[in-house]
Amino acid sequence: QVQLVESGGGLVQAGGSLRLSCVASGRTFPIYAMIWFRQAPGKEREFVSTISWNGGFAFYADSVKGRFTISKDNSKNTVYLQMNNLKPADTAVYYCTVDRQACIDPRSCDFDDWGQGTQVTVFS
């Protein structure tokens, strides 16, 4: 089992920035990718971004492309989500998870390991 701990959320004005972190510990092998999802009140959890375990490949939801950047520090088993030009629509609890099944499209796969989430609130 892997433990995931997110941090970095907060309250920010529209147009501002936040950087989220997710630290993985425990059984980190095998992990093919680390993934960020978010869930807004009354909505389903949605995919935000993913990065391969070696950091060589990244993919974003259209809604965040050009504003969010995912990165990874392999030495710390930590994935980051740099969020710029935040909008009120980005308000959600942000969760990280890990891909242990070499999922081709994280929007279509189920994942077992989740962190507790970190709240991001963007006000206009």
At a glance:
The protein contains no helices and ten strands. The chain is mainly β and 124 residues long. A hairpin with a 6-residue loop joins strand 4 (33-39) and strand 5.
Question: What would you note in describing this structure?
Answer:
It contains no helices and ten strands. The protein is mainly β and 124 residues long. The strands form two sheets. The protein has a six-stranded mixed sheet, with no helix packed on it. The protein has a four-stranded antiparallel sheet with strand order 1-3-8-7, with no helix packed on it. The relative contact order is 0.31. The chain is 0% helix and 50% strand. The radius of gyration is 13 Å and the shape is globular. The protein has strands spanning 2-7, 10-13, 18-26, 33-39, 46-52, 58-60, 68-73, 78-83, 92-99, 118-123.
